[in-house]
Amino acid sequence: MLTLHVAENSPETAVLVDGATVAAVAPYEELTAAVPQARVRRWPGILLPGLLNPYAPELLEATYHPDPREADTLGSAPITGERAQAIFRNDASRLGASARRGVQQLLAHGTVAVAGDLRTRTVADVVRRAGLAVGQRPPRLPGPPSLSPRPLILLPPLVPSRAACFAVFDVATREELVKRGASTCVATVIEGRIVHRRR
Q1: pLDDT for 86-129, tens place per residue?
Q2: Stated pTM of the model
Q3: In the sheet that 185-190 helps form, which strands lie side by side, from edge to edge?
Q4: Could you tell me if 44 and 37 are in contact, meaning their C-beta atoms sit under 8 angstroms apart?
Q5: 2-49+157-197 adopts what CATH topology?
Q6: 145 to each of 4, 41, 59, 154, 173, how far by Cα in Å?
Q7: Which residue would you say has higher pLDDT here, 82 or 143?
Q8: With contact defined as beta carbons under 8 Å apart, do 95 and 88 qualify?
Q9: What are the sequence ranges of the domains in the chain?
């Protein structure tokens, strides 16, 4: 099924998706005229290729993302350092569950690719099952590990026949995205599937 994604502040870069791949990238008016039968998904903000987060090991192997049911005892904020390692030592099964919650947080921040050497098979499997691409870590990291690192690392432009992976941010411009950060993400698409949508 053909799906046409368009964001209100970037109609010049609408994306036509055919299954898991990009069929075309062009202005919305041009695509809707060429393929009127495509289902249309309209988003606020701007549509971009998505982000690379270079901190996969720090965010998924060295951070414990509490289950909401643990809020009374552990709170809701990510736990790092020795406290996180103690949680994993006491119950190894919590690493996979934490990584799944961490990946959901990455997706909610427009991340479609990660980098860094994952040392545990459990976490690597979580990343693979989520469909996140794994790229090379840049030689200079943007700062402390974060779901919204500064500066943000934007992936190359979308091109036809490649995997349909992109994100939509509820901002007016790229400059506003840089200022406000990746928490403005309203939708993340990986291989044509909407894997995150802000409620």
Answers
A1: 999 888 889 999 999 999 999 999 999 999 999 999 999 999 99
A2: 0.94
A3: 46-48, 166-169, 185-190, 193-197
A4: no
A5: Urease, subunit C; domain 1 (2.30.40)
A6: 34, 33, 7, 16, 25
A7: 82
A8: yes
A9: 2-49+157-197, 52-135
